[in-house]
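queue> pop job 88
queue> type: inverse folding (structure -> sequence)
queue> payload:
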């Protein structure tokens, strides 16, 4: 029995990438993690508060 692939919390599709991001105890595609304020993709440093991620 094969393990189930992780599903992205942002787009709800399986993550088959070599790497995935873990944010707020959930798995994400790198391109699906976005700033909660401006909705721009996050690259670099971010922080999460009340389950919302913000870009620094």
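queue> result:
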């Amino acid at each position: 029995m094969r393990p189930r692939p992780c599903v992205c919390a942002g787009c709800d599709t399986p993550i088959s990438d070599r790497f995935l991001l873990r944010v707020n105890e959930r798995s994400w595609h790198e391109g699906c993690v976005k700033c909660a304020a401006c909705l721009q993709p996050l690259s670099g440093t971010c922080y999460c508060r009340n389950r919302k991620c913000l870009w620094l």
